[in-house]
């Protein structure tokens, strides 16, 4: 019997609606396998912020390191200025828990869900390894003569050797063990970002010397978006900076069936990792029981797998595959079920 302690941060909008399904499915998994979960809910998000002015305290951050993993819904609320919750909660957690790898699989599960013509599951199957603690997200910059016609606003892109090296090394390791084509593509903008991405280029080459069995490729990010739509089959593992990883994984979400299908693991290989859907709090559909919970369930599966239980993760994955095959899905996937309805269906076919 193995017990995992999971910190649950539902967050805002559809966040708590979808994590509720994940908790339900993991509880069911606990009933039918030897893997058990203990959940603790953390009241973090817009409501808590509006009531108390608090985002994530140092005590909460310290407490989170005592868990096996963190399961997050989403943050972001129209009542709060953009950036406050995103930086103050999500990015703060990723940064302070040093979750320097962001794993974002782009995997089509069933041909009927991609808008791309003639593409099948074998064609859309890649792993984006996104740098997750620096780049344009570092929050370095400022205003000069703010509010005047002479205003200058800067936002610096921070790239450290340590940060670039560790994500590139992780990506090489990943390409080696993923079992597809042992292929790694560096996605950057080295033709324009002649300092930042020059460092990426050099480190990619240097670290690559230790991975002679990995096929190395390079693609500029603009061409990358074109190629992801035209020939997604050319990609296996892709490593990229924080900002580009954010953008290309929304594109990736769409080619694999939409925002309701895309999953994200914020990984600290030596510490506590955090699993979440790629999508946000979707205020336009919040509170209507119609959000697709599958991304959150895929995040739960990824969490179970990374915690060392691939067979149990596979059980969740199989149940999700069945829900897609049987059209037991929410409206965005062409089905008729509610958020709760999909969670209940997954529980009913699990195992
Ligand atoms: P979003 O991902 O919340 O929504 C984009 C579109 O996709 C919307 O039309 C929404 O209805 C739809 N959508 C998203 N998830 C869905 C689901 N599970 N099922 C069905 N449809 C779904 O992006 P946005 O509208 O740009 O952002 C809304 C808020 O979320 C903002 O405050 C933003 O900062 C925040 N955000 C948070 C995260 C996160 O916490 N990880 C990620 C992205 C955006
Ligand atoms: C994501 C989100 C976040 C990001 C925002 C909300 C800070 O878009 O997880 O993709 O840019 O990383
Ligand atoms: Mn994003």
Automatic annotation (TrEMBL):
<dbReference type="GO" id="GO:0003862">
    <property type="term" value="F:3-isopropylmalate dehydrogenase activity"/>
</dbReference>
<dbReference type="InterPro" id="IPR024084">
    <property type="entry name" value="IsoPropMal-DH-like_dom"/>
</dbReference>
<protein>
    <recommendedName>
        <fullName>3-isopropylmalate dehydrogenase</fullName>
        <ecNumber>1.1.1.85</ecNumber>
    </recommendedName>
</protein>
<comment type="subunit">
    <text>Homodimer.</text>
</comment>
<dbReference type="InterPro" id="IPR050501">
    <property type="entry name" value="ICDH/IPMDH"/>
</dbReference>
<keyword id="KW-0460">Magnesium</keyword>
<dbReference type="GO" id="GO:0000287">
    <property type="term" value="F:magnesium ion binding"/>
</dbReference>
<keyword id="KW-0520">NAD</keyword>
<keyword id="KW-0560">Oxidoreductase</keyword>
<dbReference type="GO" id="GO:0009098">
    <property type="term" value="P:L-leucine biosynthetic process"/>
</dbReference>
<keyword id="KW-0479">Metal-binding</keyword>
<comment type="similarity">
    <text>Belongs to the isocitrate and isopropylmalate dehydrogenases family. LeuB type 1 subfamily.</text>
</comment>
<keyword id="KW-0100">Branched-chain amino acid biosynthesis</keyword>
<dbReference type="Pfam" id="PF00180">
    <property type="entry name" value="Iso_dh"/>
</dbReference>
<feature type="domain" description="Isopropylmalate dehydrogenase-like">
    <location>
        <begin position="5"/>
        <end position="346"/>
    </location>
</feature>
<keyword id="KW-0028">Amino-acid biosynthesis</keyword>
<keyword id="KW-0432">Leucine biosynthesis</keyword>
<dbReference type="InterPro" id="IPR019818">
    <property type="entry name" value="IsoCit/isopropylmalate_DH_CS"/>
</dbReference>
<keyword id="KW-0464">Manganese</keyword>
<dbReference type="GO" id="GO:0051287">
    <property type="term" value="F:NAD binding"/>
</dbReference>
């Amino acid at each position: 019997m193995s017990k995992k302690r999971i910190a649950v941060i539902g967050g805002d909008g559809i966040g708590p609606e979808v994590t509720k399904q994940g908790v339900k499915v993991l509880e069911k998994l606990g009933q039918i396998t030897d893997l058990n979960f203990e959940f603790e809910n953390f009241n973090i998000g817009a409501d808590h912020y509006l009531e108390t002015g608090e985002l994530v305290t140092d005590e909460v951050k310290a407490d989170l390191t005592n868990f096996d993993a963190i399961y997050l819904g989403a943050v972001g609320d129209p009542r709060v200025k953009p950036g406050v919750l995103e930086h103050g909660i999500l990015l703060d957690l990723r940064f302070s828990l040093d979750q320097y790898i962001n794993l974002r699989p782009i995997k089509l599960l069933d041909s009927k869900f991609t808008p791309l013509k003639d593409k099948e599951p074998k064609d859309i199957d890649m792993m984006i390894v996104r740098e997750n603690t620096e780049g344009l997200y570092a929050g370095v910059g400022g205003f000069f003569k703010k509010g005047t016609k002479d205003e200058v606003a800067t936002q610096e892109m921070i790239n450290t050797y340590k940060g670039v090296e560790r994500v590139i090394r992780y990506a090489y390791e990943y390409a080696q063990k993923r079992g597809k084509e042992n292929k790694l593509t560096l996605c950057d903008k080295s033709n324009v970002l002649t300092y930042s991405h020059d460092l990426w280029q050099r480190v990619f080459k240097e670290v690559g010397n230790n991975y002679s069995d990995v096929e190395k490729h390079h693609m500029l990010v603009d061409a990358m978006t074109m190629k992801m739509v035209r020939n997604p089959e050319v990609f296996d593992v892709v490593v990229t900076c924080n900002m580009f990883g954010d953008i290309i994984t929304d594109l990736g979400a769409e080619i694999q069936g939409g925002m309701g299908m895309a999953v994200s693991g914020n990984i600290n290989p030596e510490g506590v990792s955090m699993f979440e859907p790629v999508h946000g709090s979707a205020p336009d559909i919040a509170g209507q029981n119609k959000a697709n919970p599958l991304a959150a369930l895929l995040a739960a599966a990824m969490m179970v797998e990374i915690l060392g239980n691939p067979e149990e993760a596979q059980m969740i994955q199989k149940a999700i595959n069945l829900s897609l095959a049987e059209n037991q899905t929410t409206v965005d996937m062409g089905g008729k079920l509610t958020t709760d309805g999909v969670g209940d269906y997954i529980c009913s076919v699990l195992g």
